[in-house]
Amino acid sequence: MSVKFKMTDVTKSYKDGKETKVVLKNANLEVRAGEFVAIVGPSGSGKSTFLAIAGALLSATSGSVAIGVERIDAYSQAQRTDLRMRKIGFVFQSAQLLPYLTVLEQLQVITEIGKGKDKKAQTAKARHLLTALGLTDHHQYPASLSGGEKQRVSIGRALMNNPDVILADEPTASLDATRGYQVVQVLAEEVHRHQKAAIMVTHDERVLPLVDRIVRIENGSLHEVKRS
């Protein structure tokens, strides 16, 4: 399996008055196509900073990050924005759907932002993704959807640009246990089906059986969790 995401010796530090606060310390992580990795750890351990660097939203102080074959640590802000559109799909804590767009239009808007794409083919792709995610009525508005259905739409939206990497930030935070498990199960199935690399930051231990690997972050350091 090809490597879709690679973080090598990444350190992130901030100046806090006269002191230097180190949030990530020599972090290393490699995720291959078809792998679903969970990042766990206590509040303040560096999970948000890790995800921001992985998603090309924040620059590391040192070290390197690669999405597919692209090294992004030296990219300009414009290059990072372009890379996020081409290579990264995001699933957030809340679905963040636009209330005035239908389920289908939530995915089509990704096509509108992109350039040089066949709109008809992209609409067919959106319909296929939604149906595969168990959403058969593509003309519903967010107000008529359950929390779990909204998150399924957000998973479809994350897959629309055919990203190398999917980053999920606490996707079960606003859901009850049953719906949270179902959403992560759907995400895992899509990651394996489409051979994406996925990284999910979560506090929800109930969904950990659904991931392929667990990495714990504590005091800015990453450590693989061995499973029995």
TrEMBL record:
The keyword Cell membrane applies. PROSITE patterns: ABC_TRANSPORTER_1 (PS00211), ABC_TRANSPORTER_2 (PS50893). It is a peripheral membrane protein. Transmembrane segments: none annotated. It comes from the Bacteria. Residues 5-228 form the ABC transporter domain. Keywords: ATP-binding, Cell membrane, Membrane, Nucleotide-binding, Transport. Gene3D superfamilies: P-loop containing nucleotide triphosphate hydrolases. GO terms for cellular component: plasma membrane. This is Putative hemin import ATP-binding protein HrtA. It comes from Brochothrix campestris FSL F6-1037.
